[in-house]
Amino acid sequence: MNSRNLATVLPISMAVFVLVSVGCSEDPVAPEPAPSDVQDQTGLDQVQNDPSTVETVDDAADEGTGVDSEADESDAEDASGDGAVDIADEEVFVGPIEPDGAPKILLTINELPVEMNGSQGYYDNETGPTPFQLLLPTYGFTLDVVLDRSSAWIDPDSIDVTCDAAFGEIEANAPLAGQFESREMHLRWLVPEGFALEEGAVSCTGQLANHDGEMSNVSVVSFDVEEIGERHPFAELDEWVVTFSRDYADISYTYDGDEVTVTFVREPDGERDFDEDMRLLGFQGDESGEGAAEVEAYGQVGVNDIVRYLIIDGTMRNLRTMYGVDPETGLPFNEDSVNIAIYKETDEGAPGTEYDGSFSIHGVGGPPPEGWPDLFGLASDIDVHNPNNEDDAREGWGSFSMSLARVIVENPAAQALLSEFLPTTGTPVGESDLDAVFLSEDYESGDGPTGTGTRRNRFNFQLELLTKGLASLIAHEMGHSLGLTPCGPPPIGLFGGIFDPNWMYGAVPTCTHMDLPGLNVMQLGSSLSTDIGSLLGEVYFEPLNLAY
User: Could you read off the pLDDT of 296-323 as tens digits, one per residue?
Assistant: First the structure.
């Protein structure tokens, strides 16, 4: 994983790059593989279907790349004064740096970067370029004009976008500019059902000018269109419950003053595995600090319950944000949301806490399955076009937070970063007299003895790292259960397992994984142990994965 500038994760829409199973029934039954069937390449891994039996068809829907941001009310004003539907007001297009010559634009689908939208080939192990083509549904995707940050002072009347196919009653090659809404450095049209395309090949062209009359480059994007029918992976709301209460092991550690060794016995011990995992990190202590057992906040009593609440709450918020759903409720809340509901087991609206086949469940906590000591997580299937519900709360499946904790406590760099709370080198939360002060619901900045604010700030910093790490781990395994990441380039795959394309980052990914710059959710998992600091940046699904 690699550092990426700290940024807010943008909401992403339900997406539609769809997997098609060749030679399978419309509703294939996923096998029940054992952990011994898994080819562990990375740490974040899962059972893989035979790629020769799986074909993926890429349909598009809406999602973000980091260029996008919320539009303000001024975007809806009549910038040109002609009384027509506006595509932009000038202020939207003022870049953060001094404009330099003619504007530069990218016409694309679903904000996909140029490397992924099929307008240029990809390089595979220094061969190529190899062409590929996107396959879209007839509607529900976005057509985007993305401006380079050096572009500014765009003339909104100059925007010229056409496609050589009819969008409903809009004839082929007719101007489409009036359909777009403006966002920061970005024009966007979410194609509705009433403007659906016919099946076939489509090519679109875009160009615009600045107020000096300098024309931008001509940007072209081409794609194929096909009805997707039942292959839509989120045609219905997909309900998931994430649990943190399972107890499959007795987890402990030894410390010789130099090295930490995490050990466990595979039998329940009456304590949730997640709590034991957090104890390794110093986030579940003996509450020996003054007032630690009595302090109240967030409806919880005692430091341990408060800290557990904060970890789970932060993890769920990050997880939900990655899928573009409401971070509070876990439900889809706008057109940028994936059609998925993500509950924690204590949520009032959760469909259940025990798997019954009507929803999917994902367990967090405890060690990996026997024989796979480096595994961070395991999904029970790569669920081709997502027809099935999954039970990933069983022993040996789900997200193994013990593995994450072990990587941290056994990694010298991580120890240096997190040393204040580690039980081996510092004082766990709840064992300092300062902890009950800053964790109290009545705490205000400046309260408490000297050092309270500093310890609180360090706690919050480590809480941010931990919750992002846990959320990215859960999102990764859930992503596999939803069908990510298909192997090969579009339209066969979503670049899963492509060997060293020119825009890929780092190690050669295994099939169903891809590694891009930044903390991409579906990348290889092994690099987590070498770059903990990347959790300070944005945690995101790369565009093709989230467009699925």
Answer: 999 999 999 999 999 999 999 999 999 9
- pTM score, whole prediction: 0.73
Rounded CA-CA distance 398/378 in Å is: 5
Query: Max Cα separation, the chain?
Result: 77
Can you tell me whether residue 205 is helix, strand or coil?
A: strand
319 and 400 both lie in a single domain? yes
Asked if 384 and 509 sit in the same domain, the reply is yes
Closest CA to 146 of 213, 64, 222, 89: 64
* Number of domains into which the chain is organized: 2
Owning domain of residue 479: 18-57+241-547
Please confirm whether the linkage preceding 412 is cis (ω < 30° from 0): no
Within 10 angstroms of residue 373's Cβ, the number of other Cβ atoms is: 12
What CA–CA distances, in Å, run from 249 to 44, 361, 379? 20, 20, 19
Domain CATH number, residue 131: 2.60.40.1220
CB within 8 Å of 282: residues ≥ 6 apart: 418, 421, 422, 423, 426, 427, 428, 429
- 246 and 211: one domain? no
Quote the strand ranges of 50-98, DSSP E: 54-57
Q: Are residues 419 and 347 in the same domain?
A: yes
Collapsed DSSP state (helix, strand, coil) of residue 173: coil
